[in-house]
């Protein structure tokens, strides 16, 4: 059984069709189709049902997909272990946040590509938490405070944020003086997440409420500038607006605890050299733990 056939099948399964899989792999659709045909012939099973919209896993394909993905990952890890030197090559699929990713991470990933000219870097920017395993990502760059999960996490640097509002909002509603005062204000949030604030060495958790929600930090910046409420946002999104006077810091004596920049990856014994290279360059840029 050819490893390229397994890798191609996993790509088609994750991408939902031959065309997007060919684009991810950087090969023609005819090559993808031939590899799939050979794999199905060898297994004696139809793995994919071709449709006008793409390709859907058959029952056999769904059962085979996770095993095939693990085999591909283990072989790549084994190659890294026995061949720890030489040019990085192959493909690195990364999920990154949309709100801060293009400005904060895209330049770092461009530098990674420059250092390793044989490495193919494919980044998907979205503010939702993607399922790395189900969607076929090698790793993700995430920021903030991470919930518990079965993923392997490596902190690569600090990430700072603050509470902000517009001068018009403060003029109309006043500025909260204590964390508890936030409960009487409109909060701009992504969902129902709690806010954490520091009072010396103590961390205070507040469950704010608000009528305006968005799954993107840039959208929350716009809402804050419009005077709709108070937002907890990363410094990199709000500092320029504070400099122009469009936003002002709120509750400065109670700053949010320092968050982090993380690389997370599916569970495995060894990270690949590609992920190690990503971690190293992010640590360089963001200053380490």
Automatic annotation (TrEMBL):
<feature type="domain" description="HTH lysR-type">
    <location>
        <begin position="1"/>
        <end position="58"/>
    </location>
</feature>
<dbReference type="InterPro" id="IPR036388">
    <property type="entry name" value="WH-like_DNA-bd_sf"/>
</dbReference>
<dbReference type="GO" id="GO:0006351">
    <property type="term" value="P:DNA-templated transcription"/>
</dbReference>
<dbReference type="InterPro" id="IPR000847">
    <property type="entry name" value="LysR_HTH_N"/>
</dbReference>
<dbReference type="InterPro" id="IPR005119">
    <property type="entry name" value="LysR_subst-bd"/>
</dbReference>
<dbReference type="Pfam" id="PF03466">
    <property type="entry name" value="LysR_substrate"/>
</dbReference>
<protein>
    <submittedName>
        <fullName>DNA-binding transcriptional regulator, LysR family</fullName>
    </submittedName>
</protein>
<dbReference type="GO" id="GO:0043565">
    <property type="term" value="F:sequence-specific DNA binding"/>
</dbReference>
<dbReference type="Pfam" id="PF00126">
    <property type="entry name" value="HTH_1"/>
</dbReference>
<keyword id="KW-0238">DNA-binding</keyword>
<dbReference type="InterPro" id="IPR036390">
    <property type="entry name" value="WH_DNA-bd_sf"/>
</dbReference>
<dbReference type="GO" id="GO:0003700">
    <property type="term" value="F:DNA-binding transcription factor activity"/>
</dbReference>
<keyword id="KW-0805">Transcription regulation</keyword>
<comment type="similarity">
    <text>Belongs to the LysR transcriptional regulatory family.</text>
</comment>
<keyword id="KW-0804">Transcription</keyword>
<dbReference type="InterPro" id="IPR058163">
    <property type="entry name" value="LysR-type_TF_proteobact-type"/>
</dbReference>
């Amino acid at each position: 059984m050819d490893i390229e056939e397994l890798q191609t099948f996993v790509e088609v399964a994750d991408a939902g069709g031959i065309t997007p899989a060919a684009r991810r792999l950087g090969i023609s659709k005819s090559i993808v189709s031939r590899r799939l045909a050979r794999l199905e012939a060898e297994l004696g099973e139809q793995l994919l049902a071709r449709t006008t919209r793409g390709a859907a896993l058959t029952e056999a394909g769904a059962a085979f997909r996770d095993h095939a993905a693990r085999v591909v990952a283990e072989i790549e890890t084994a190659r890294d272990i026995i061949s720890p030197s030489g040019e990085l090559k192959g493909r690195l699929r990364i999920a990154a946040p949309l709100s801060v990713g293009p400005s904060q991470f895209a330049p770092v990933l461009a530098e990674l590509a420059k250092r390793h000219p044989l490495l193919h870097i494919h980044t998907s920017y979205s503010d939702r938490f993607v399922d790395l395993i189900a969607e076929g990502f090698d790793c993700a760059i995430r920021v903030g405070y991470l919930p518990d999960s079965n993923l392997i996490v490596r902190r690569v640097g600090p990430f700072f944020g603050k509470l902000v509002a517009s001068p018009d909002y403060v003029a109309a509603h006043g500025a909260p003086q204590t964390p508890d005062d936030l409960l009487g204000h409109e909060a701009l949030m992504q969902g129902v997440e709690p806010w954490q604030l520091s009072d010396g060495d103590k961390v205070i958790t507040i469950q704010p409420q608000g009528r305006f929600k968005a799954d993107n930090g840039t959208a929350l910046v716009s809402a804050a500038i419009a005077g709709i409420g108070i937002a907890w946002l990363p410094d990199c999104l709000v500092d320029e607006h504070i400099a122009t006077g469009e936003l002002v810091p709120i509750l400065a004596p109670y700053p949010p605890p320092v968050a982090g920049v993380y690389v997370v990856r599916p569970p495995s014994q060894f990270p690949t050299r590609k992920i190690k290279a990503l971690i190293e360059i992010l640590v360089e840029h963001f200053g380490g733990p």
